[in-house]
Structure formats: structure tokens, C-alpha cells
Amino acid sequence: MKKTVLAMMVLAVMAAGCGKTEKAAPATTAEEGKAVKAPQADAGQPKAPTLSKPKVFLDLPEEVNGPDGMTLGPDGTLYVAAPNFVDTNYPGLIIAVDKDNKWEVFCKAPIHPETGRGCPMGMDFGPDGNLYYADNQYFSDKNYKSRLMRVVIEDGKAKNIEVAVDGFKLSNAVIWKGNDLFVSDTFFDVEDTPGLSGIFRFTLDELNKGTVKLQPSHKDPHIIATFITVPNRGDVAGADGMTIDSKGNLYTGNFGDGVMSKITFNEDGSVKSQEIISKEITCCDGIFCDLTTDDIYITDSRYNAIHVMRPDGTMFKDVWKNGASDGSDGLLDQPCEPIIRGDELIVVNFDFASPEWGLINKEPDDKHNISVFTITR
Ligand SMILES: [Ca+2]
Ligand SMILES: [Ca+2]
Ligand SMILES: [Ca+2]
């Protein structure tokens, strides 16, 4: 697909972030790229971690022009998914980064037979040792073409890649909790409920029986939670990143309006509660829980910012924020997913925007980077 056509389609999807009525970021923090002392909610509350100035974690070639999702393997290898929406001459792929930050292509994403594209985004390892990733076809075809893929791994290598679940709109984040797998779908595109999105749950047993075919509807029985994004700058993108805290609670945030939700579970895995816990920010892409503290790191694509949220919804805004950058200096360039490796906060820069979307990042450039901060907890 031509880049311009794709960009127009993506505009409808990802023109996201913050309403025009939102106050602009403080100029000093946005422009100077300084670590900001995060506000403390209440005396006695846990303090927010602080972050160093970011550095370049990886410089990536054109072959990896639009990185998105990440996960850590059992041996500490970092996997990074690249749907490569910026330059679609390159196929979507997943790279593996070792502990010395040397990387290689782990696998190329199989193309969808109807769209001709393979677009890996969110990823997580399952209890079966295989790697599962969201194959986001929404930018090519909105008619339930997105999938969940299973990379069957043998001896640390990708042996083959199978369709585990077929029929999402925009499968985005993927996370396992025991034998339950959760997948967020950012758009349901229901006419009478604009901004509807949701989270699906699958069990390992069900996935082991063969490809799960979803009902082409927002009423598929695998849906365990739904969300409604309030239009923000005309954007209604919904559930995006997901993470699970040390107590097994699930969190997600809407891309379009930044509303954060928490889901708790009963012993049998059914949903016990679902509540909105924060409306402090206006854009949420990927999120990641630091299990040593239960601090939840949030990437804000709109403002090139990192926020940190506590499980009770206490939000420490702008733990990091910087102005426009091509990323070659390590500064954020439309950050889309965080992950923690030891005391490193590694942040992928998606860098795929258009000026009219109103993001700090105006458009893709030819620098493709992943950033890294040092965390002081
Ligand atoms: Ca995402
Ligand atoms: Ca860049
Ligand atoms: Ca850029």
C-alpha cells in the first residue's frame, strides 16, 4: 500500500491524544527535555520513581522502520515487534535483542492472504513457551482481518507461525495471566456506540484446540470488558496497552482520551470488578507494571511523555517529557510502549504521525530508535 493512502487511513485511527481544549504541556518541560520532579498526590503516598535523561538504546535501520510492541523472553532476550507502517516496502518482523544489546531478526511476520501485510504489535510469551503477538491489519482492512499469531518456538528459534485467533478489528496489546490470554481491541466501530473498544480473554485450552474464529461483532463471548472513549480531537481510539500488577489485577488505558481502567478477577478467572481509576492524562499507548514496586509506566504518544500510575490510580504525570525530536539523541519520538529490564526503562518510539493529528511528533523521519532511561526507584 502506498504510504500516503496508508497515512490517510491511519489518520482516522490514530489521530489521537488530546483535545484542543486541553492545556498545552508546560513549555519548559516540553521544550527543554528535562526530567521533571513529579507531583506527589498526598503526604504518605509512595513517591514516584525518577528517570535519568534518556539515551539511544538501539539505532534501527530502515528494515525496522516502525517498532511497536516488546516483551522479555524467559532468558532475558528482549523481543521487539515492528509492523513497519512507515515504510511498507519492508515486511513486518520481530527482532531479538540480547543482554549485550546485539540484535538480529527473530522472524518475519507471515502476510495476511487478503491484505498482503503482516503487522506485529503487542506480544507476550505464553505458558506453553510460545510467543503470541497481535497482527494489526486494521490499517489495511477494517473488516475484522486482525489476528493473534502464535510463534512456535523450539530451541529458542521460531519454527513456524500459526493463526491462534482470527477476526479482531485492531488487535493491539497481548498479555498472559496464568493460562488466560488477554488481547485488547482498540476499535469496535459500532455505529450507535462511538468509541467502544474492549478486551478479549482466551484460555490456553481453547487455543490448543485450533484457530479460534471470532464472531464479527462487538458481542463475541470472549469479550470480558468494554470501554467507551470520549471523543478527543475527534479521536475515539480505545483500549490500547495492558499490564498486570503483582496482585494479578489488569490495567488498560484508552489511546484517544487517556482514561485508565482497572479490572479485578474472581478465583475462577471471571471479572470481579471494572472501574475507571484515572482521568489525569489524555493519551495512553503502551503500559508496563514494575512488579518490584507496582508502579505502572505509561507512554503518552501525544506529548512525548512518560507518566507513572499507582494501582489506586494515583497519577504522577510527566515523569519525563520532551519536545519534538527525531530520536537520534535518545529523546522520545512518539513513544508507544515501555518495558523494564533491571533498572532500565526501555521505550519504543513509534514515530508514525501526520501534522494534522496534533501530536508533538509531526511526521515520521528517517531515524528509527528505541530509547532507554535509568530508573531510580
Ligand atoms: Ca499500542
Ligand atoms: Ca524518529
Ligand atoms: Ca519523528
Topology readout:
Elements: H1 3-14, H2 27-32, E1 50-51, E2 55-60, E3 70-72, E4 78-82, E5 93-97, E6 103-108, E7 120-125, E8 131-135, E9 146-154, E10 157-168, E11 171-177, E12 180-185, E13 196-203, H3 204-208, E14 212-213, E15 223-228, E16 239-244, E17 250-254, E18 260-265, E19 271-278, E20 287-290, E21 295-300, E22 305-309, E23 315-321, E24 335-341, E25 344-349, E26 368-376
Parallel strand pairs: 10-14
Antiparallel strand pairs: 1-26, 2-26, 3-4, 4-5, 5-6, 7-8, 8-9, 9-10, 11-12, 12-13, 13-15, 16-17, 17-18, 18-19, 20-21, 21-22, 22-23, 24-25, 25-26
Largest sheet: 5 strands, antiparallel
Q: So how many helices?
A: 3
Q: What is the CATH architecture assignment?
A: 6 Propeller
Alpha-beta classification: mainly beta
Distance between the ends: 45 Å
Q: Could you name the ranges where pLDDT drops below 50 across 5 or more consecutive residues?
A: 1-32
List SSEs in N-to-C order. HHEEEEEEEEEEEEEHEEEEEEEEEEEEE
- Beta-strand residue fraction: 35-45%
Mean pLDDT: 90
Class in CATH? Mainly Beta
CATH level 3 topology: Neuraminidase
Number of domains: 1
State the share of residues found in helices, binned by percent.
under 10%
The strand count comes to 26
- Identify the bound ligands: calcium ion
Rg calc:
19 Å
- The CATH superfamily is TolB, C-terminal domain
Quick one: overall form? globular
